[in-house]
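User: I'm writing a tutorial on reading structure tokens. Could you give me a worked example: one chain, its sequence, then its tokens, then a sentence or two explaining what the tokens reveal?
Assistant: Sure. Here is the example chain.
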Amino acid sequence: MTAQSLRRIKAIAWKEFIQIKRDPRSLGLALALPIFLLFIFGYGLSLDIDHVRTVVWNQDASSVLTRNFLLNFKNSKYFEIIRYTDNYRDIQHMLDSGEAMMALVIPKDFSHYIESGTKAPLQLLIDGSDANTAIIAKGYVQAVVEKYNAQLLTDAFEEYGIGPPQNLDARSRVWFNMGLTSTWFIVPGVIAMIIMIISSLLTSICVAREWERGTMEQLISTPVKAPELIFGKFIPYFVIGFIDLTMGILMAIFLFGVPFRGSYTLFIILSSFFLTGALSQGIWISVVAKTQLMASQMATLTTMIPTVLLSGFIYPIFNMPKFVQAITYLVPARYYIVVLRDLFLKAAGIGNIWDEGLFLFLFAILMFGLAIIKFKKKVA
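And here are its predicted structure tokens:
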């Protein structure tokens, strides 16, 4: 690359910086929207199911065993007993109206069953309109029941002066996210989603704007070559994109408390690949579309839907049908989300994420090359 070529790239980049500065809407989109989206998703999106609203009909209220059993629900953060009742009519009304999500019905002979050593029936009614939450709530109840059964067994053996059977002693330990905090899982994915969508959206209008305003003809008449024009358009948005990425990482660490345990150097390198690919995809769309409206719509359609639905951001890829899993291999955000989560939580090195890094590098090269090849210095 000659000195003249560098001067032309610098001139195009400076022109684009001035254009961005004169357009406060684009600048606001570039800087304010990522922060707003991270706030919304970081605080509003959670996979934790806490304080399941529960109504209880205790038909054996005089029993100490029953009260001890209900203490397991009262003392748990996963349940919130909002009302006690004495009939099914109230239970049905509260489940129908959404006031409660779950109901426990304890039969009148509950303590008698326990004291006699037979299985005690317990009715659990759950609002299944939200299937995922219902399954999780059911699992919480089963965990409480198993804990209570284990305690009863222990008490029974201690009553006779012997210890409970010790055939199995399973001790679990969660690595990387000991508190199972869903924010630690969600925020890195949100950062990847925002960078992919915002980067493509920003650059998708940069070339189309020149065609709509009639300034592209003036650029075509200059000695600026197609690669130089693409480079010049790319540089300002790369700077803005990295500012957005830096703000996202700082918010994740200091606002949401997500620990960053990996290498910052590796983060910068792999993020540069991803950012280059996302920006180049936007430029390629802008070259193809020729109008700002069409370009922005194409950018939104080709980035938002795949990134949200097919990247593993929220929905596990291994639960998807096989043919959908095959499609996810073409979604760049899938690889960058793995990179961010591994760098944040696992302190992963290049040996652990080299394949994701390779795909991001190929994605950057492919999209940048397509943008250069597609742009022609001629009036259609």
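What the tokens reveal: The mean pLDDT is 85. The first strand starts at residue 52 and ends at 58.
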